[in-house]
Design brief:
- InterPro entries: CHD_C2.
- It comes from Lanius ludovicianus (Loggerhead shrike).
- It holds the Pfam family CHDCT2.
- This is CHD3 protein.
- This protein is globular.
- It has seven helices and no strands.
- The chain has two domains: 103 residues, no CATH class; 43 residues.
- It has 147 residues and is mainly α.
- It starts with a helix and ends with a helix.
- The longest helix is centred in the middle third of the chain and has 31 residues.
Length: 147
């Protein structure tokens, strides 16, 4: 999964900025998962209110003055958990495939689909800035984004 790369990038940003608690990274993910084990799935408020899991509140301290703060925070936690859940599922599938000595067949049609998906993902990432431009009323950006 891409989770390890994400963790490295987040941790690098946290260390270089000197904000280990304020920038979400793998340590926060650990405590989020531990909170889910203890309090249950999607029990974001219970996890946040438990002092033992206070580290997951640190990255949001600067946003506390915003009106939709709790909703924004809970949505982030839900999205982050989904990311972790997907990565754990993928890693378990890879572990099982290795245990069964399964290999990928490059000629299988699914591999072509995987290549096409990677191309589309790359295109979407390279044009990500256009969505902001389009929302700001930039008509050429909107036309490119539409295509």
């Amino acid at each position: 999964s891409e989770l390890h790369t994400l963790w490295q990038n987040e941790e690098r940003a946290a260390i270089s900025s000197g904000k280990l608690n304020e920038i979400w990274h793998r340590r926060h993910d650990y405590w989020l998962l531990a909170g889910i084990v203890l309090h249950g799935y999607a029990r974001w408020t219970d996890i946040q209110n438990d002092g033992a899991f206070g580290v997951i509140n640190e990255p949001f301290k600067g946003e506390a003055s915003k009106g939709n703060f709790l909703e924004m925070k809970n949505k982030f936690l839900a999205r982050r958990f989904k990311l972790l859940e997907q990565a754990l599922v993928i890693e378990e599938q890879l572990r099982r495939a290795a245990y069964l000595n399964m290999t990928q067949d490059p000629s299988h049609p699914a591999m072509a689909l995987n290549t096409r998906f990677a191309e589309v993902e790359c295109l979407a990432e390279s044009h990500q800035h256009l969505s902001k431009e389009s929302l700001a009323g930039n008509k050429p950006a909107n036309a490119v984004l539409h295509k």
